[in-house]
Design a protein that fits this description.
- The chain has 404 residues and is an alpha/beta fold.
- It has two domains: 260 residues, UDP-N-acetylmuramoyl-L-alanine:D-glutamate ligase, CATH 3.40.1190; 131 residues, Protein-Tyrosine Phosphatase, Chain A, CATH 3.90.190.20.
- Helix content is 42%, strand content 15%.
- It has 15 helices and 14 strands.
- The strands form two sheets. Strands 4-3-2-5-1-6-7-8 form an eight-stranded mixed beta sheet, sandwiched between helices.
- Strand 9 and strand 10 form a beta hairpin.
- It is globular.
- The mean pLDDT is 95.
């Protein structure tokens, strides 16, 4: 298969939906004889901040001359972003070759592996071939039954836990925390962000059951500049450093400084230009952090908000959070069936006493926002910020990569 054909096959697997469980991925790992001999594996779960922590770990380790593999999700502009070795995305030819082999391998499987299971197997196989020394794995959804949890880890990192993905993870913070804490394995080193009392109780119980040393990190890193904006990123930096040290990697101070200064993680308070910010805040907790960061950077200046939310999110809570900093609001129709209806979002804002205007596309919403001369905030979901970044970069959106 060509790259486009391979992605078309992979995306076709989305018809199998999300199936949490480790049977298929374990079978894939064993059947493909995937092994990461000698690699230190750092596994990261949580509700918000997972990707930033993973990116920081990867950047510091590369600055310390370790060969790294970084597996994250979702992608923004190209599928290849999900799988990186030493900061370089997997090539189109490697994707095509790897997915062709995986398609042939699982052709007769029942149940058939899902999109994320195949993607995880592709990443692990790529890392094994590259002989990475440090593998950083971000959970896709939850933790306990996430495909990444089939890999034996040296360190488990848990970022702040909040309500999200209730359809799959449970309708209470206790249930969600239990799923996230499921990445803790016997004798793992556990690095954990400050949590609510409910989540902390669950994590402490899981760590005790596994005999896993648990370390809470509550002091932000302030020794050198961090390349990602916001006070919360200083806490993420402290988590990343603690995780690296728990993995028995002892980076020099200069490597930590270089890694944190140069870390790149798009759509996390990304300043596209002096007056345009892109941030994939996709749940109420992330929205609150984004508002705090906006006020840190822009003070009392109100934003021209360009907002698109997926339909399975708590739209009212997200809109309520953004309303106080929004001077004007644009609600574009984005190109995914999962998007919340802009007209329904308009009604939510009307209930909050805020006027919002709909737009048939992001391109039009951006043009209207730019005419208003106020700083612009593009947010609401990582899917949407990916579409926005593709437009700003003059590239096809992620869903246009595969053959039709």
């Amino acid at each position: 298969m060509t790259y486009k054909e391979a992605l078309a096959w992979l995306y076709s697997l989305q018809r199998f939906g999300i199936k949490l469980g480790l049977e298929n991925i374990t079978r894939l790992i064993h059947g493909l004889n995937v092994d990461l001999p000698g690699a230190r594996v750092i596994h990261v779960a949580g509700t918000n901040g997972k990707g930033s922590v993973c990116a920081m770990i990867d950047s510091i380790c590369r600055a310390s001359n370790y060969r790294t593999g970084l597996f994250t999700s979702p992608h923004l502009v190209t599928f290849r972003e999900r799988i990186c070795v030493n900061g370089e995305m997997i090539s189109e030819s490697e994707v095509a070759k790897g997915l062709t082999g995986l398609r042939d391998f699982v052709r007769e499987w029942e149940p058939h592996p899902t999109f994320f299971e195949i993607t995880t197997a592709l990443a692990l196989k790529h890392f094994a071939k590259a002989r990475v020394q440090v593998a950083v794995l971000e959970t896709g959804l939850g933790g306990r039954l996430d495909a990444t949890n089939a890999v034996c880890s040296d360190v488990a990192v848990i970022t702040p836990i909040a309500m999200d993905h209730e359809k799959w993870l449970g309708d209470s913070l206790e249930k969600i925390a239990s799923e996230k804490a499921g990445i803790i394995k016997p004798n793992d080193q556990i690095i954990c962000a400050a949590q609510s009392p409910t989540a902390e109780k669950v994590i402490r119980a899981r760590a005790a059951d596994c005999g896993a040393p648990l370390h809470f990190i509550t002091t932000p890193y302030r020794e050198t500049p961090v390349g990602l904006r916001g006070e919360h990123q200083k806490l993420n930096a402290a988590l990343a450093i603690a995780a690296i040290r728990a993995a028995k990697i002892d980076p020099e101070t200069s490597a930590v400084a270089r890694g944190l200064a140069t870390v790149d993680w798009p759509a996390r308070f990304q300043c596209w230009d002096k007056c345009t910010v892109i941030d994939g805040a996709h749940n109420p907790a992330a929205a609150r952090i984004l508002v705090e960061t906006w006020q840190e950077v822009f003070g009392d200046a109100q934003a021209t908000l360009i907002l698109a939310i997926l339909s399975d999110k708590d739209a009212r809570a997200i809109c309520e959070t953004f309303a106080p900093i929004a001077g004007s609001i644009w609600l574009p129709q984005i190109r995914t069936e999962r998007a919340a209806d802009p007209v329904q979002l308009q009604k939510v804002f009307a209930d909050l006493g805020k006027e919002a205007r709909t737009s048939p596309s992001f391109a039009e919403a951006l043009a209207k926002a730019r005419a208003e001369k106020a700083p612009i905030l593009i947010t609401g979901s990582l899917h949407f910020t990916g579409e926005a970044l593709a437009h700003l970069q003059g590239k096809p959106a992620a869903f246009e990569e595969c053959a039709q």
